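pasting for ref
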Amino acid sequence: MSITSNIQDIQKELQPIGVTLVAISKTKPNEDIIEAYNAGQRIFGENMVQELVEKYEQLPKDIEWHLVGHLQTNKVKYIAPFVSLIQSVDSLKLLKEINKYAEKNKRIIDCLLQIDISLEETKFGLDHVELIELLESEDMFGMQNIRIRGLMGIATNTDNQKEIKEDFYELKMLFDGIKVSYFRQQESFDMLSMGMSSDYTIAIEQGSNMVRLGSTVFGQRVTKHFKAK
């Protein structure tokens, strides 16, 4: 299967139900991204700031770049001029930094709040208490250069589909509650990003409207083996 046919098949599945595809292009060469681009894909997600900046500089400027990996505050300045959506906001401190550099670049940067739904120590994200504290902090009202568009989460890394389903169900319930309580007047709070290649069909069943697919689009990662000379 080619990247082109993968994109076409996925979009046939997602477009009629209003689900946005973010093609996760981390570690992928520019040729692969261009093939996806030529197949009509415009939204790509990267994990690492340096790789994101390099690809932004080298690839077509109508690509919408999403930062989906953990973002350190000292790296915000590098992506603030162009990033379309930061999906991995996990602290008020980070949000303040994004707002600061968005203002410097005369932009409003869209953000998703990352929620820790798996409770795995290796994953980032806000718990429910931290989320409420962030949304109710006085600092939130002063930030004019960020726009909270919704929530993002990563399910538990398990083969247990019931557990994955419960993770996504919990995040959808949280999204609905937060929308009613804090964003009732903002139609722009409309993104629920959950689901990756291994679990996106479950995520969509549970209400996701944005999925982050890497291997489903680009194929499995190839590990290079170098022979010692």
